[in-house]
TrEMBL record:
Pfam families: Porin_O_P
Origin organism lineage: Bacteria, Pseudomonadati, Aquificota, Aquificia, Aquificales
Signal peptide: 1-23
The protein's name: Short chain amide porin
Record key words, sorted: Signal
InterPro entries, A to Z: Porin_dom_sf (IPR023614), Porin_O/P (IPR010870)
Superkingdom, natural source: Bacteria
Keyword Plastid: no
């Protein structure tokens, strides 16, 4: 036993290297492994004027600064967790007074019995619509994300307040099973979302969800390979998949019903890899609020040039997204939309990139002196070490 620990320590000392998906990667044999890494996003956004009294200004932000680890105890028993340093400290009035709070944003255990059935439990991404949190945030076609500029944020985890992980709204406390059948032609997720309903009938009850994906494998395409999806696989596989998701959760006398539909096509033609993905979501009584209905569309795509430059592979991306009216909300939301374009250099994989994006937002919620449209320019640097 001591020898195995010494061997592991020796491997650990030699396994830290740059340019890989994990800063530390250890294979101990017999199904035992340990991976650890660091990743962050750094954005500088030139924000257009929001009202007549405003001035365009530069906003610097660190949307994510994370450390993560995952591994396996055996061929069946697997685990993972991730923490974020980019949180903020707020006073009793809600004002930010400091930064650097470390939060665990997900932690889970997965029992990998077979490719057809994997049981999981913990705080983990909710398997809803492709653009609503089940996708890796490091695979965004547009670095600013699917919801950027949309007033009511329709592409969102629909689980009720309190059931989502602090610091990462795409995660929720879940117990579920997922797997692939028919040689990967179909993939499914079935899950329950925990709820705080011990003391009050007005609190959210247990949520129920299902997601099904179809990929025409007979035509040589593949579906999303893992639990977490991606908006792009950078041509590493020819992907064509259609997903259908449904989630429901009762809060008091209101029943949240959320529907999601999405599709992704990406094909490597040698010199270039085009990508097109679309999504639609519709929420009724969103997060348990009576009458808070919202819906949204997104269409986006990318053309990746499979030629390495000194800073990686270049790509051009575009996105159009729209959120529709939401009458019963703290602030009534009218229709809003955004058109965006981006130029990117993928230095190594989706997690290491440099991007320059332009987003043109049209927001019908605004009235004088607020402007109903503005343009933001974002320079983004991401790394995954």
């Amino acid at each position: 036993m001591k020898k195995s620990y010494l061997a592991a320590a020796a491997i650990l000392g030699a396994a830290v290297f740059a340019g890989q998906a994990h800063a530390v990667k250890i294979d101990l044999g017999e199904g035992k492994s340990f991976n650890m890494g660091f990743r962050a996003k750094i954005h500088g956004t030139y924000m257009g004027k929001r009202d007549d009294n405003d001035k365009a200004d530069l906003a610097l932000s660190v949307p994510n600064s994370r450390i993560y680890a995952k591994g396996s105890i055996s061929k069946i028993f697997k685990w993972g967790w991730q923490g974020d340093f980019a949180g903020s400290i707020k006073d009793n009035d809600g004002d930010t007074i400091g930064f650097g709070v470390f939060k665990i944003v997900d932690a889970f255990i997965m029992l990998d019995f077979a490719k057809e059935a994997k049981v999981y439990a913990g705080f983990i991404k909710l398997p809803f619509e492709l653009h609503s949190g089940i996708q890796s945030g490091w695979s965004f076609i547009m670095p600013t994300g699917p919801n950027y500029g949309l007033a009511n944020q329709p592409f969102t985890n629909p689980a009720a307040d309190g059931e989502r992980a602090a610091g990462s709204g795409s995660r929720a406390a879940q117990l579920g099973v997922w797997g692939k059948v028919a040689d990967g032609m179909f993939k499914y997720y079935l899950y329950l979302v925990d709820a705080r309903d011990e003391d009050s009938t007005n609190e959210a009850k247990t949520g129920y969800g299902v997601r099904v994906e179809f990929a025409p494998t007979m035509a040589g395409y593949k579906g999303h390979p893992g639990y977490v999806l991606k908006e792009t696989y950078l041509g590493k596989q020819n992907t064509l998949t259609v997903g259908l998701a449904y989630f429901t959760e009762k809060t008091g006398g209101n029943n949240n019903k959320s529907l999601g539909i999405d599709a992704l096509w990406e094909q490597n033609f040698g010199a270039v890899t085009p990508n097109i993905n679309v999504g639609y979501v519709k929420h009724e009584n969103f997060r348990g609020v009576d009458g808070r209905d919202r819906s949204g569309w997104i269409v986006q795509g990318q053309l990746l040039f499979n030629q390495d430059t000194i800073l990686g592979k270049p790509a051009i991306g575009v996105r159009w997204a729209q959120s529709n009216k939401d009458d019963d909300a703290p602030v009534t939301f009218e229709k809003s939309s955004v058109i965006g374009v981006t130029g990117q250099l993928y230095v190594k994989g989706v997690g290491n990139r440099i991007a320059l994006s332009i987003d043109r937002v049209k927001d019908d919620n605004q009235s004088a002196p607020n402007k109903d449209s503005w343009t933001d320019v974002t320079l983004a640097f991401w790394y995954n070490f």
